[in-house]
Amino acid sequence: MSLTLDLSGRVAVVTGGTRGVGAGIARAFLQAGAEVVVCARRPPDTPVTAAGRTAHFRPLDLRDPAAVRAFFLQVAAAHGGLDCLVNNAGGTPYRLLAQTAAERHTRVVELNLLAPLTASLAAYEVLRDRPGGGSVIMIGSVSGTRPSPGTAAYGAAKAGLDHLARSMAVEWAPGVRVNTLVLGMVRTELAALHYGDEAGIAAVGATVPLGRLAEPAEIGDACVFLASDRAAYLTGASLLVHGGGERPAFLDAATVNHPTLPEVPEEIRHDGTGDLR
């Protein structure tokens, strides 16, 4: 049985698809044969291309609901419909809560939670008419699953985005599937701004069980799968794409402080339910 994911004849929109993770997602859809529209406030420095094909760019401010509604109607008219929306646009600077005005934190929530809601509602009007059903993919973050000091508003928005996707999945079934990719760290052209030089990036990657940061193309592959017929029974799901997550800090602390910890006898390790004693 072939596992090739062919999206030929389908139309996908990737918000924030002009660089970084978004461009990686757009390229993966192009390689799978889909017609791809990327949107952002500014055009890409170079066109987003893959497999000899180019994504269409349309300018859009996702904070303008009227413009967002018009955008999706225009995409559907120009390309014969819409099959998939990838809500990728987002991000945040590093801002400690008490050192920043509430208005700035509010803008982060608007971009990472309210903008995907606005886009999804507008896209739903055309997605629900597709004969094979439509798909919405939220790009979430591990920041929404653990404490996120310095990016607390971002983490809160991403946690809300995951919950929003689960509710959408129930309300919009069976016509539109809604899923979330929960991302860990990804190596993009901006990685050096966050992690420093190549040595810094490698050191950060070493904290991940798989030993490296994800590549944008790998995020794109996961999106193509969720948009494909192979994922026809997946909705309301949260797919972790984080290389195994983060090694618990207490394990390393125990090793450093007690390098010769005695072995615990098997008969007292567990009480039969899996609870450590």
Automatic annotation (TrEMBL):
PROSITE patterns on file: ADH_SHORT
Keyword terms, alphabetized: Oxidoreductase
InterPro entries with a match to the protein in the record: KR_dom, NAD(P)-bd_dom_sf, Sc_DH/Rdtase_CS, SDR_fam
UniProt GO MF annotations: 3-oxoacyl-[acyl-carrier-protein] reductase (NADPH) activity
Any Pfam family hit: adh_short_C2
CDD domains reported for this sequence: SDR_c
Keyword Oxidoreductase part of the UniProt annotation: yes
Domain annotation Ketoreductase: ranges: 10-189
E.C. number: 1.1.1.100
Gene3D superfamilies in alphabetical order: NAD(P)-binding Rossmann-like Domain
Family: Belongs to the short-chain dehydrogenases/reductases (SDR) family.
Name of the protein described by the UniProt record: 3-oxoacyl-[acyl-carrier-protein] reductase FabG
Organism: Streptomyces platensis
